[in-house]
Amino acid sequence: MDDNVSEGPITKWIQQMIDLQQFSNENLYRFKTLTKREVEVLSLVARGLKNQAIADKLKVSKLTIQNHRSGIRQKLDIDNQVDYVKYALAYDLIEF
Amino acid sequence: MPPLTENDLLDRFELHTLQLENQLLEGKSFESVSNQVPYAVHLNSSTTFELLQINRKFSELLGYSFDEIKSMGREFYDNNIHPESTASVAKFLPELPNKKFNKPIPFIQHVKQRNATEYTPVFTFTKITKLPDNTALSLSTRLTDFGALSKKMEQVLEMDRFKLMHSKRFHKLTGREVEILGLLANGISNSAIAGQLFISKQTVQTHRKHIINKLEIKSYHDLIKYAITFDLVKL
Fold it and tell me: ipTM higher than 0.90?
C-alpha cells in the first residue's frame, strides 16, 4: 500500500462505520427497554418479513405482532422501515 | 458474507492511520480530525517520547487530561504504561525514520487506566509521519472496542458490496424514478408522492412499476437496500 490514500469512498466508508457505532452508543438506552420478544420482532421486520410471516414464524397471532410493533415504534421512536433496518444494523441483529 | 479476517482489519487500521496523517499534512487541525475517528489518537516525539497532542478518546481511555499527563512528565509513562510495552516501543520507534518503507506498525500495549490496579491491553498502530521532527502518530483502541467496531466494518463493507453488485441496474433508472424510489423508501404513500410531485397517482404507480422491473425488486426490503446504499435515505 502506498502513502497516497484516496479520499472519497474510504472517507465515506469510515464515516458510515463511525455513524453506525455512534448511533448504537447514543440509542442504547432506548434499545435496552425492548423485551426479548420485541428484539426478535424488530430483527424480523428489518429483514423485510411481513406481519403475517413473522406471526407464522413465531407461532403467534398477527394481532400479537401488531402489538409488538407498536411497542417497538413507541420505545424506539421510529416510524418507517429504514429506521427498523438502522436499529437492526446498529445492534448487529441482521447482516445487510 | 465471510467474516473479516485479521488481515482485513489490519488493512483498515492502516488506512485510517495513513488517512489521518494525510489530513494533518494538509494542515487540518489535530483537534478537528482526531476527534472524528473512533480511536484514541496521540502524537508524540519518536526520540524523546514526549507527548505532543492527544484527542478526546485518548483522554477517556486513560482517564487523564492532556494537562495532567503533561505535568506528570516521564512519571506518566512509568505509572501508566507497562514497562515492557514501553521498552518494546523504545526499541523500534527511533529506528523507524531511517527505514525506507515507513508503514504503520501494529502492536499491543498494556496501559493502566486512572486508579486501576490491572493493565488493559490496547491495540495500537504507530507510524512515523512526515510532520516535522519525525513525529509519531498512534491510533489505539481497546481490544473489546475493536471487536464491536469490526462488526460495524462488516456491515458497511456489505453495503458497499451490495452497491457494487447492483449499480448497473440502479443506473437504468431515470432521475424521476430515483426521486420516487427515495420517497417510497421513506415510507411516503403513492398519493402523497403524487401530491408532492404534482403528478397523478396513476403516474406514480407507473413509475413504481418501472422501478420494480429495472431493479428486479422482490420486496419492499429490497427497495430499502437500494435506497440506503445509493444514499437516497439517511441511515
Answer: no
- pLDDT tens string B160-186: 888 888 999 999 999 999 999 999 999
Whether A95 and B155 lie within 8 Å, measured CB to CB: yes
Contact B149 A17 (CB under 8 A): yes
DSSP alpha helix (H) spans, B81-174: 83-92, 143-170
- Contact assignment for B224 to A85 by CB distance below 8 Å: yes
Beta strands in A7-95 (DSSP E): none
Tell me if B186 and A5 make a contact (CB, 8 A cut-off). Answer: no
Residues of A in contact with B162 (CB under 8 A): 96
Pairing of strands B51-54, B105-111: unpaired
Amino acid letter for position B93 = L
Which distant-in-sequence residues (6+ apart) come within 8 Å of B183 by Cβ? B192, B193, B196
Mean pLDDT computed over B188-209: 95
> Which one has a higher pLDDT value, B6 or B14?
B14
Contact between B31 and B82 (Cβ < 8 Å): no
Sheet holding B120-128, edge to edge: B51-54, B40-45, B135-142, B120-128, B105-111
- How does pLDDT run across B85-140, given as a tens digit for each residue? 777 777 777 777 666 557 788 777 888 999 888 888 888 888 888 888 889 999 99
Other CB atoms within a 10 A radius of the CB of residue B194 amount to: 16
User: How deeply is B213 buried, as exposed, middle or buried, from its count of CB atoms within 10 A (0-12, 13-18, 19+)?
Assistant: exposed
**CB contacts, 8 Å: B187 with chain A:** 79-82
